[in-house]
Amino acid sequence: MDKKSMVPVNPTYHEVINDFAKRWEKEQSERYLEYRKKWANNPKNFVLEDGPLHLDIEPTNACDLKCPMCPRTLLLADQDKSKKFKIGNMPIDTYKRIIDEAVEIGVYSVKLNYMGEPLVHPQIVDMVKYAKDKGIVDVMFNTNANLLNEDLSKKLIEAGLDKIFFSFDSPIKEKYEEIRVGANFDKTLANIKYMVALRNELGLISPLTRVSMVLMEDNKADFDEFVKLFRDIVDIVAYVEYQNPVREKKTQINEGFACSQLWQRMFILWDGDVIPCCNDEERQCLMGNIHQNSIKEIWNNEKYVQTREKHRTGRYYDIEICSTCNLPLNSHDGNI
After folding, report:
1. What pLDDT is stored for residue 82 in this prediction?
2. End-to-end CA distance of the chain
């Protein structure tokens, strides 16, 4: 496979962006702009840094909701798989050690969630502050906002959170509460409004706010109403298309596909396990463990090298988990 014919890709959100979001981007530092340039260009040219550009760190895999489409909910509902799914929180000392090394090797960005709800972790504010104090240029997380009270909003803003992404799957109360099982529509909406209003009252540009819905059969007709509800509240309104979590090997292949995540980011789970991408909820493709090796060692180990080479040469389908992924057949350039 000719290198020039390969186009590394990621899924992305379909976004409606307001002027505040455009201003936020323009006011970022040179280092942030350097990071975003590398994020776009490194995978396209198969440029590999000493370490990842970005770390997805999972403070906890616990969650306060039970959304039916969530891979976490589905794992717990499976009697066999749930036995392997241990729930826990990352100790703050482990987290600090990860951030210290991340800064040392030039990691630009950190996202504080994966399978769980970050606001469940009792030290989430400390985690944000530590990363910002150490010089991480872009600190963010996704949240269902159910636990986002006024005090927590204030502390997260003061800690220096750069971006916060709200998951809110319908503009209709009854439908929202059917999807976000355990959440209250009015309370969660008020939580989101309060945080944005507080940021604006303080005259700050961060955190940048985005609200998104997972577009499914039951709610796909609601997106226009969703935009109307949120366009004057948050900075970005978005949707991401639902991906069927059932892992089946694809009979069709795309030899022009190479997953950009292999050149951009690394996922470190609450217990230290490292996986290469956001679609490996069952840890089928373990790359190492942070308690045994450093970030840099794992990023450059033989398993990562072989995985990247298969993608670079158009043979992603030789990797079990990649052969079941939807992205190669439905892919385009994207963002975090």
Report:
1. 82
2. 27
Nearest to 225 by CA among 170, 263, 280: 170
Distance between CA atoms of residues 177 and 292, nearest Å: 42
Beta bridge partner(s), residue 55 = 110, 266
**Per-residue b/e over 289-312, b at no fewer than 16 CB within 10 Å?**
ebeebbbbebbeeeebeebbebbb
Q: Looking at this protein, which amino acid is placed at residue 309?
A: E
Find the radius of gyration of the CA atoms of the chain. 19
DSSP string across 121-156: STTHHHHHHHHHHHT-SEEEEEE--TT--HHHHHHH
Q: Which run of H or E residues covers position 71?
A: helix 71-77
Give ∠ CA 220-225-226 in degrees, rounded to 5: 75
Q: How confident is the model over 155-175, as pLDDT tens digits?
A: 999 999 999 999 998 999 999
